[in-house]
Amino acid sequence: MFLQNKSTVRVWLVAILLSVFWGNVSKAEELLIIDNFEGAKSKSQLMIEWEKYTDSHAGGDSKIEFAINKVPADSTGEDQPEGHVASLHGHFGDGFSYPFFGMRTFFKKGGTPIDLSNYKGVWIRLKNENNFALQLLTANVTDYNEFSFTVSSSDEWKTLKIPFSVFEQSAFFGKKVGFSVEKIRGIVVHVTGAPETESEQIEIDQIAFYR
User: Tens of pLDDT along 169-205?
Assistant: First the structure.
């Protein structure tokens, strides 16, 4: 009886260990990582360059600063990261009435879409002292009226799970098209502000898609 109980305990221990192991694996597989910026380079995990852009093509003169920086030791917040983060800030010029700047990356060279039908939305860990629009680039939008979600400002690190269903096009310009998770080809951090003002810092530790 004692040996039988001992064997039973051993079986239960193995079962518990396996459940913990497979639980961690499935949790890790929930995320399709776009970038965690640990390479300290401006290329995403998909090896596509992050592009900086401003309102210059619209006659504006806004400026942008984008860098991969080590996390400051005095950072605060429950989700404070370690390692490196992407840092973005700039100056809103007065050459365009609605100044803007941002950074973007495509998932494949040439902007070819990827099928994200097995994912539910965007997972992002960040600290943003400036509101910004997180945008999804889709193959069927051709007039810059991208599907967008406004991320509210915060002076502490936080982790957000943003479902695809809350990304919307503007009602004030451009053509409305249907949203398709099979047509997503890139992601954008788009920042707007008043002319002749400075933006606050936006720092991103990791960005991904979650199941």
Answer: 998 888 899 999 999 999 999 999 999 999 988 999 9
Tallying the residues shown for the chain, one arrives at 211
**Sheet strands (E) in 41-183:** 51-54, 63-70, 84-92, 100-106, 121-128, 132-138, 147-151, 158-163
Could you tell me the two tokens for 166?
């809350």
Q: What pairs with residue 210 in β-bridges?
A: 31, 121
Cα radius of gyration rounded to whole Å, the chain: 21
Backbone CA torsion sign across 65, 71, 76, 80 = positive
Among 18-32, 87-101, 123-137, the minimum mean pLDDT is found in 18-32
Return all residues near 30 (Cβ < 8 A) that are at least 6 apart: 210, 211
Rounded to 5 degrees, φ, ψ at 166 are -95, -5
Q: For residues 4 and 10, what is the distance between their CA atoms, to the nearest angstrom?
A: 10
Contact 187, 104 (CB under 8 A): yes
Tokens of 32: 């399709």
| 25-40 tens-digit pLDDT | 335 558 899 998 887 5
| Cα torsion 38, 39, 40, 44: sign | negative
